[in-house]
Specification:
Structural class: mainly alpha
Distance between the termini: 42 Å
Strand order of the largest sheet: 1-2
CATH architecture: Up-down Bundle
Largest sheet: 2 strands, antiparallel
Oligomer: single chain
CATH class: Mainly Alpha
Strand content: under 5%
Number of domains: 1
Helix content: 55-70%
CATH topology: Four Helix Bundle (Hemerythrin (Met), subunit A)
CATH superfamily: Nucleotidyltransferases  domain 2
Length: 171
């Protein structure tokens, strides 16, 4: 039995309303959510689609670590497209982006239900943090990057593709 690397990765973001609100307030205080220019969400979405295409190419080449890296960036840019379109903001900070999406309910429960079908670990928006944690392993860990499996890469790629489509439907 293959144990997926993703099953051993811990999400680091808070899940309950109080801690989420405190985290969000800290992001605002540290200016991690910045004003975006009108209609800039289209550029974020274009970048997300480009990164998704690159992730698919890496998957086709059986390069699981870079599939994860590029899928992560597709998720990040798609999240920023959604945040920009709905709130006129963007974030370079992964954690603050996810918390803002969660805090403002920009990713629907129905969509997260679909994500849970991809992998049980994707039950709510803060589970997108798993992509960040797995991306760090893929990109920086010389000891663990080879442990990433086809299944891990495929699950992250599917999450990225679905998030890009979710954001794209709203434009």
């Amino acid at each position: 039995m293959i144990i997926m690397k993703m099953s051993s990765v811990r999400a680091m973001l808070p899940r309950e309303e109080g801690p989420i609100n405190r985290f969000f307030d800290n992001c605002m205080k540290r200016k991690r959510l910045l004003d975006d220019v009108p209609d800039h969400h289209r550029k974020h979405l274009l970048k997300a689609k480009h990164d998704l295409a690159r992730a698919r190419a890496e998957f086709d080449d059986e390069c699981w670590d870079w599939t994860v890296v590029m899928a992560y960036y597709a998720i990040h840019h798609a999240g920023n497209a959604l945040l920009s379109r709905e709130k006129g903001l963007f974030s370079k900070d992964h954690s603050c982006l996810i918390i803002a999406l969660q805090r403002w309910d920009l990713i629907t429960a129905d969509f997260m239900g679909e994500m849970a079908q991809v992998h049980q670990r994707f039950a709510d928006a803060v589970d997108l943090d798993l992509t960040f944690q797995l991306r760090k392993i893929s990109q920086y860990s010389v000891d663990e990057w080879e442990d990433i499996t086809r299944e891990d890469a495929g699950a992250i790629l599917e999450v990225a593709a679905r998030l890009v489509r979710f954001v794209e439907r709203g434009t």
